[in-house]
Design a protein that fits this description.
The complex is a heterodimer.
Chain A (H helix, E strand, L loop, with lengths): L1 H34 L2 H5 L1 H11 L4 H23 L8 H39 L2 H7 L4 H40 L3 H11 L2 H29 L4 H30 L5
Chain B lengths: L4 E12 L2 E12 L3 E6 L5 H8 L7 E6 L2 E2 L5 H8 L2 E4 L11 H12 L4 H14 L15 H12 L6 E5 L7 H18 L2 E5 L3 H7 L2 E6 L2 E6 L1 H6 L3 H8 L15 H4 L8
Parallel strand pairs in B: 3-8, 3-9, 6-7, 7-8
Antiparallel strand pairs in B: 1-2, 1-4, 4-5, 9-10
Helix pairs in contact in B: 3-4, 3-5, 4-5, 6-7
Classes of the chains: A mainly alpha, B alpha/beta.
Bound molecules: adenosine-5'-triphosphate and magnesium ion.
The site of adenosine-5'-triphosphate has 11 residues of chain B, from helix 1.
Chain lengths: 265, 270
């Protein structure tokens, strides 16, 4: 019996040490990526190419989801607010929910599963088929040439995708509340304009999306680069990207929200 | 070490974890020669190339390329050295996100300031040499295995390196391409004064083009010599390998428990 306990404790210790080691390794990799980002900016064409894959190809899912989320918000908001006779505030509710929370968070979650997983799979497959090793042998650093452009493309496209999500979402709310249900057009927009503050709501929302963008793409490129070079290795890494970055997004969102909106009156 | 020696390997040991792969390998390779490395599957040939290229570190011994010990170089010195060497990977390792043209142009764009018009001419020349100028705007996924390997060969000679390592350049080629590629390796070596290390299983084809052969078996150099010496050799190992016989000193099987015990046969049955 004591032997079992010892083995159990040892197992836990191993796990802890392993995960700390991995965290350190990931941080080091992240710093290297930043340090080697020079050519991403000197040859911006490399980033633009990746922007197309991570950003432009994510647009459809972002727009469609944004529309539906906005429409649901319009319905639920109207349903709740009309109990208090405040149905004209539905515009405010839709806009604030989107700009502060749902835009950044849902867009980032979608981004993680659409673009993040693709980045991991691509880099992992390049590793599994010796492409990264071949690049090393050609005296070209794969972190500078492959990882950094993908990282920056993700970081740049995330805020735009989230903004797009919010804009389309507001439009979805408008469709349901004003066009379908018949809330007054003028008060829908004017109340929204009065209630949404540029610095307090929009800027904070943008800061959130930037943080999420860095987190998701950093996780995605690391998991791809660290994948074991086999088919299972790559598929496992892709799954880990989606799981880890989703948890990171939700955790970071709580932290950021509690810092940003603490003094809300 | 004479000035003609480009690669010198002394007492090289390497292991993956506990498993020892190379055990005290010694080799010298002169400039302007084609050297073949032959040996059974899993005998450590690819590993040896990775050691020469500095992708992995030896556990003892050293590899010297052009007088410099590879594993002692700093990262930028290593990269400097790698600009003068190139490696054809066993499975081609073409960049799947770039077209055939861009694959061959990759190093020219990364390491030189050549104008695009000149890059275009050079790339087409290299592709012409492997007989694939016609596919320059296809993507790697649209090529057959043998074609991909030939494109990879064109890419590896892109910057006319001093040393090229070919990991099984002949596998998956039809007899015609095989002869063409074999002759191409010979011609490049002679014309540009480069050194070629060819890992291969294709004994007959490679004996026609190489200057020297090393046989590697279970992590040691089992035999070496010129093609004429190899053909005439009566050493059982060389004979078995050159003639592809099943019985002889080389075992076809990866080391394992005895077959009978692995199959859980009772003593009496086996
Ligand atoms: N990354 C690795 N980790 C652990 N062991 C490895 C690794 N790569 C190769 N090996 C082992 O090293 C040995 C030599 O491998 P290597 O790839 O050098 O063989 P090879 O001579 O090139 O064989 P082939 O002709 O089949 O390509 C093999 O037994 C293999 O199991
Ligand atoms: Mg091999």
């Amino acid at each position: 019996m004591p032997r079992r306990i010892v083995i159990g404790i040892r197992g836990v210790g191993h796990r802890v040490i392993d995960s700390i080691w991995r965290l350190g390794y990931a941080s080091r990799f992240f710093l290297l990526t930043l340090l080697k980002s020079g050519i991403s900016f000197r040859r911006f064409g490399l980033v633009i190419r990746e922007l197309y894959f991570t950003g432009v190809l994510s647009l459809i899912i972002i727009i469609v989801s944004g529309l539906f989320v906005g429409m649901v918000l319009g319905l639920q908001g109207y349903e709740t607010l009309q109990r208090f006779g405040a149905e004209s505030a539905v515009g405010t509710m839709v806009a604030l929910s989107l700009v502060r929370e749902l835009g950044p968070v849902v867009a980032a979650l979608l981004f993680a599963s659409r673009a993040g997983s693709a980045i991991t799979a691509e880099i992992g497959l390049m590793k599994a088929t010796d492409q990264l090793a071949a690049m090393e042998m050609m005296a070209v650093d794969p972190i500078a040439r492959v990882v950094a452009p993908r990282f920056w493309a993700g970081v740049i496209s995330m805020p735009f995708l989230a903004a797009m999500f919010s804009v389309v979402g507001v439009f979805g709310g408008y469709l349901v509340a004003v066009v379908l249900i018949g809330v007054d057009d003028g008060s829908f927009w004017s109340q929204m304009q009065n209630a949404v503050d540029f610095r307090y709501d929009i800027v904070n929302g943008v800061i959130k999306t930037c943080v999420f963008g860095v987190a998701v793409t950093a996780i995605a490129v690391f998991e791809g680069y660290d994948a074991s070079p086999t088919a299972e290795g790559v598929s496992g890494a892709t799954t880990r990207t989606v799981v880890t970055s989703s948890l990171a997004i939700l955790g970071l969102d709580f932290v950021l929200t509690s810092v940003m909106f603490r003094g809300m009156s | 070490m004479t000035p003609e020696t480009l690669v010198e390997i002394k007492g090289l040991n390497f292991s993956y974890g506990e498993r020892s792969i190379l055990k005290g390998v010694n080799m010298t390779m002169s400039r302007g020669k084609v050297i073949a490395i032959m040996g059974g599957s899993g005998s450590g040939k690819t590993t040896l190339l990775r050691l020469i290229g500095g992708a992995v570190r030896p556990s003892s011994g050293y590899v010297k390329v052009a007088g410099k010990v590879v594993h002692e170089l700093k990262r930028d010195e290593l990269f400097e050295m790698r600009r003068k060497m190139s490696m054809l990977f066993q499975f081609g390792a073409l960049f799947t996100d770039l077209s055939v043209f861009d694959n061959v142009a990759f190093q020219m764009r990364e390491h030189t300031d050549l104008p695009e018009s000149m890059i275009r001419d050079l790339v087409l020349m290299k592709l012409q040499a492997v007989g694939l100028r016609g596919v320059h705007n296809l993507m790697p996924a649209q090529l057959s295995g043998g074609m991909a390997r030939r494109v990879a060969l064109a890419r590896s000679i892109a910057l006319d390196p001093l040393l090229i390592m070919y990991d099984e350049p002949f596998t998956g080629l039809d007899p015609i391409s095989l002869t063409v590629i074999g002759n191409l390796i010979r011609r490049l070596t002679d014309a540009l004064g480069m050194t070629s290390i060819v890992v291969t299983h294709d004994v007959q084809e490679s004996l026609k083009i190489v200057d020297y052969v090393y046989f590697i078996s279970e992590g040691v150099i089992a035999a070496h010599g010129t093609p004429a010496e190899v053909r005439g050799s009566v050493a059982p190992f060389v004979h078995q390998f050159v003639h592809g016989e099943e019985d002889g000193p080389v075992s076809f099987h990866y080391p394992a428990e005895t077959y009978a015990s692995d199959l859980k046969l009772e003593k009496g049955f086996a």
